[in-house]
Amino acid sequence: MAARRLDPRDVGVGDSCAPSKYPSLYADPWPQYGNEVARLVRQGYVVAAPDYEGLGTPGLHSYLQTDAQAFATIDAARAARGMATEVGTTVSTEWAAIGHSQGGQAAVGAAELADARAPELQMVGAVALAPAAMLKRATKAIARDPYGFPYIGYIGAGIGATHPGFDYANFVGPQLLPYMSYAEEWCFDVWFPQIATYLRPGVNRNLAPGWGKDPDVQDYFRDSQIGTRQTDVPILYLQGTVDGLFQVAPDQVARMCGIGDIVHFSAYPGLEHDPIVWKGWPESKAWLAARFAGEPAPDDC
User: Fold this and answer.
1) So what's the pLDDT on residue 29?
2) What's the half-sphere exposure (Cβ side, CA atoms, 13 Å) at 105?
3) Among residues 79, 54, 76, which one has the least CA distance to residue 64?
4) Which residue of 66, 113, 238, 285 has the fewest CB atoms within a 10 Å radius of its CB?
5) Contacts of 161 (CB under 8 A, 6+ apart)
């Protein structure tokens, strides 16, 4: 079987944050992604965990841009199968995607683009664990979150990556703005503790006045949206109810159902953003096994 990518934590937009620079997938201080890969390997899957566009290469990472992440995911599956073939290992043309947060967004994007990008392969499913979704609606909540507001810096850097010449002051508020050069470089384990310790959450502190009216910002939010292109690849969407992303999850699922996707949504009561990775493993494992076995996918639409 050719299974696909497990995405590392939202580790940053700088080159030093590229997952290929960490063979253990950030085992110190956060081993959960490495553990997930190990679980998949023990189930018999071939696993590929790619860098995204701009990570470890010149230029900024196009953070949360659906198509770029989807292409990286699909290409990783193609490359993994090609490498296995070169060493004499036979793997299936079937593959699936599983990812958390940004990786969940990438998994859904891959489902939307897989047939066109890799017609020689058959994608059988996508598992989205707390995927980034409806970013424009979630932005104010992120700016107010005492632990999540540093993401505003990463989003600003993502806008700059995809819109050359973008003025961060059109999106990032006065508190975060002086630190944007660090947002471009520092990985999660440095950027978040530093910013969350010394700065404060708040919409007016961390978002510029009229931040949603800038044309570049509007383009970025449009390009970050999932559920805009119908796919026949079934999707498993897992979301903790205490996670800030839960507020948009039901509407995101409704949007995907509205265009004809096959979606099964599971809400995990009391669960925050990160624990869905390991708490959702039993359901993810069973769902993936059923897809590779050719069983009909459950559909809540």
Assistant:
1) 60
2) 22
3) 54
4) 285
5) 13, 54, 59, 60, 61, 62, 63, 65
